[in-house]
Every structure is written in C-alpha cells, then in structure tokens.
Amino acid sequence: DAKTTQPPSMDCAEGRAANLPCNHSTISGNEYVYWYRQIHSQGPQYIIHGLKNNETNEMASLIITEDRKSSTLILPHATLRDTAVYYCIVRVVNDMRFGAGTRLTVKP
Amino acid sequence: ETGVTQTPRHLVMGMTNKKSLKCEQHLGHNAMYWYKQSAKKPLELMFVYNFKEQTENNSVPSRFSPECPNSSHLFLHLHTLQPEDSALYLCASSQDSGRAGEQFFGPGTRLTVL
C-alpha cells in the first residue's frame, strides 16, 4: 500500500512554472502515479499519470525519478485558474486513495 | 449533457427524511463511484460499481444505500442520516474498474443534514 507525501501548500507567481513535488518511496514496480486537482467546490479533475517515463499532455508534465520514489508535476505557465488542491496518488488495486494534497495558490 | 452530472446540486434534509442523490454519466463508461468529502478531510471512497455490479463497499453505514440500474446511472438513497453526514457527495465514472485511475468526476451534491 504505497503512500504519498506532499507539501500542504505552495505559492506560484502567475505566468511562472509551478513545480509540485510528491514522495512515494514505497511504490511498487507496477503501480502508476496519478495526479488530480480539485478547484474549490468542484469535483476532482484528472491531470496526468505515468509509470516510469516522463509524460506530457496539454495540461501538465510529469517527471518521475529513475528510482520512482518521487515525482514532480509541472504546470509550465501557471494561471490564476490553476489555483486548486493537487493530489498525487499511487494507485492501489482499484482504489484511488486521495490524501490531503497540496494547495497551490497562483498569485498575480 | 456531457460528462458526469449530479442532481440535486444542493440538498438540505432533516434526520428523519428520505432522499436520493442521482448521478448520470454520458461517457459510455462501465464503472461508477460514490465518494464523500467532509470539510477539511480527504475524499473517502464509498461504493464502486462495475458493469452494474457492486464491487466495493468501504464499510459504509446502511443509512446510505446505493443503486445502479444501468451503467449510466447511479443513485445514493439516504435515510435517517446524522448531522455528521453533511458533506459533498461526489460521483465519478471510468471506462471500467480496471481503469479506475482515470476517473471523471461530477460537480457533487452539497448535503446538509439538520
């Protein structure tokens, strides 16, 4: 049962890259890392996931270390609308165990 | 309608009332989920349905009763709730439970129990 550790909060200036770290030191070889975000009073939104290789989509990039014990979600040009709680999840069987996440505040 | 919809968006009920929450997904998915999000707490998975069959019940009290008549609809029937059941109830869907990592969430129902 891999757990994740994220900082409770982070700030980022608008237009700059937001780098959100996540530690998952007990991750198993076949477990994926998923990232979601939840904007205030809305349902969570899937962002990206990966296993070993770095991944990129229209929303973000995911960098996973070679030993897979940590990862970083990168929002390349943060906007005010990216203010949200970001969840890093290591999938356990069919469960998505949402932790407390990181509250990212993008400031003008 | 697109994505995952939930009705009502807000609900206030007394402890003796019976009410139902409705979730509908327009994504052609086969797995649906109910989550509870209390104030300042992480999301808690309540129930999972895969191809209309309940595959998970996370020790949820019997005052919460799910129903999944088909792959597109999911209900949560509520009766004799307690004030501590006040929370945001979120529905989600995925292609199937094997792809539970990529879930699409609805906007939630904000429930207040008086």
Write a structural description.
The complex is a heterodimer of chains A (108) and B (114). Chain A is mainly β and 108 residues long. Chain A contains no helices and nine strands. The N and C termini of chain A lie far apart (39 Å). In chain B, 0% of the residues lie in helices and 56% in strands. At the A-B interface, strand 4 of A face strand 9 and strand 10 of B.
Total strands of chain A: 9
Assign the structural class of chain B, choosing from mainly alpha, mainly beta, alpha/beta, alpha+beta, or little secondary structure: mainly beta
The helix/strand order of chain A is EEEEEEEEE
State the major sheet of chain A: 5 strands, mixed
Order the strands across the largest sheet of chain A as they lie in space. 1-9-8-3-4
Helix content of chain B: under 10%
Number of helices, counting only DSSP H or I runs of 4 residues or more of chain A: 0
Q: Rough shape of chain B? A: globular
Mean pLDDT of chain B: 93
Q: What integer value in Å does the Rg of chain A equal?
A: 13 Å
Low-pLDDT segments of chain B: none
Q: State the separation between the terminal residues of chain B, measured CA to CA.
A: 32 Å
The string of secondary-structure elements of chain B, in order, is EEEEEEEEEEE
Beta-strand percentage of chain A?
35-45%
The first-to-last residue Cα distance of chain A is 39 Å
Largest sheet of chain B: 7 strands, mixed
Output the radius of gyration of chain B: 13 Å
Strand content of chain B: over 45%
Mean pLDDT of chain A: 92
- State the largest interface: A-B, 19 and 22 residues
Percent of residues in helices of chain A comes to: under 10%
Please name the defining characteristics of this protein:
heterodimer, A: 108 residues, mainly beta, five-stranded mixed β-sheet, four-stranded antiparallel β-sheet, 0% helix, B: 114 residues, seven-stranded mixed β-sheet, 11 strands, 56% strand, globular
